[in-house]
């Protein structure tokens, strides 16, 4: 069974984000607070509300703001090209689970060399979040997973029906955003992903 | 002798900021990297360049990004209303010097109660950075310094000629931005501030 990462949209109200997370968190391994326009204070408020809603601290991953993650004692951070490097973060905060978002093989290899625990790679399929940008596709995903030793989490337009192909390509997990946070029935959707993931990982 | 804080403008190139800082740092007690539009990675690059230029780590203060401050081992952070609270930062990183930027007595008192080491209060005089916003003036500054027990650093339109009045009002230091970083002769200007500060503090 691979990992299921849920990524916040950065466009919803705090209440909507917390409400949906509280519904679905038992089915997800990680919930990423990816709210680039929000201040450290606001991200802290989101963490407090998620904890109050019963989301375990170790499931919470904060995008970019390592300080908020450490101060609130959550499980991990997700770093991008504009963030502190995995190396510096791991040196100072070895207890944090550190992910790195990557778009190329070189970035993934660098993340691995710098001590990242995993990479999120994408986008794999067409997605409205990346309109006009050509998706990488599962073939490139497979090339990446063969050459990188840390777990690769696939992101971008992944529907439940894609899950099998993504895992067959060597991904150790999937990350989804709009299908959960913008979906009509987030709970039904997250269960569907988990069902597909369970069946897909049977094949290995 | 009070403290002299130099605050970056957030509008200059990294090279200009580093060059001017390298010229003037021996005359300043603290250099604040206040570059709100810049990423953690960029702020880290600025810190590295300042260190290479001979600015001591303990003189460097980073605005808002506690993570960058901790990872690069600089002396302090300057927090605003949208930042992590002084309390949370002090609890987790007691070795950091923590300043809080405030605009009212209530904010200053809260910062004191939350363990901030000092506040920066302003703006005191008319300044192009706060056009159309009425300055607080030295009378309000004096009222504040009487009621707050942690050091109050004054900011906003402070020219060398104002230094005496500001210190007479109980400020323990001044923070300046454009007169240094946009000045024709930053070195001459910083010396002028220090000269005024030396003479002003003789009077106590």
TrEMBL record, chains A, B:
Signal peptide: none annotated. Residues 15-180 form the Thiamine phosphate synthase/TenI domain. It comes from the Bacteria. The keyword Cell division does not apply. Transmembrane segments: none annotated. One of its GO terms (molecular function) is thiamine-phosphate diphosphorylase activity. InterPro entries: Aldolase_TIM, ThiamineP_synth_sf, ThiamineP_synth_TenI. GO terms for biological process: thiamine biosynthetic process. The keyword Methyltransferase does not apply. GO terms for cellular component: cytoplasm. Keywords: Thiamine biosynthesis. It holds the Pfam family TMP-TENI. Pathway: Cofactor biosynthesis; thiamine diphosphate biosynthesis. This is Thiazole tautomerase (Transcriptional regulator TenI). It comes from Anoxybacillus pushchinoensis.
């Amino acid at each position: 069974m691979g990992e299921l990462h849920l990524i916040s949209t950065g466009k919803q109200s705090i209440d909507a984000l917390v409400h949906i997370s509280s519904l679905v968190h038992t089915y997800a391994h990680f919930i990423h607070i990816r709210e680039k326009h929000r201040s450290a204070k606001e991200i802290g408020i989101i963490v407090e509300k998620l904890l109050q809603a019963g989301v375990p601290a170790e499931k919470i991953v904060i995008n970019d703001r390592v300080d908020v993650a450490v101060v609130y004692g959550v499980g991990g951070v997700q770093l991008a090209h504009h963030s502190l490097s995995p190396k510096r973060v791991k040196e100072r905060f070895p207890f944090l689970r550190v992910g790195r978002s990557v778009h190329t093989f070189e970035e993934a290899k660098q993340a691995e060399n710098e001590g990242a625990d995993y990479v999120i790679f994408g986008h794999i399929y067409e997605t409205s979040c990346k309109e006009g940008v050509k998706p990488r596709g599962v073939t490139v995903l497979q090339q990446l997973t063969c050459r990188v030793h840390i777990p690769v989490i696939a992101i971008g337009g992944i529907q439940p029906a894609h899950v099998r192909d993504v895992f067959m390509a060597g991904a150790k997990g999937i990350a989804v955003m709009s299908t959960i946070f913008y979906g009509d029935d987030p709970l039904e959707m997250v269960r569907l992903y988990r069902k597909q993931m369970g069946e897909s990982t049977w094949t290995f």
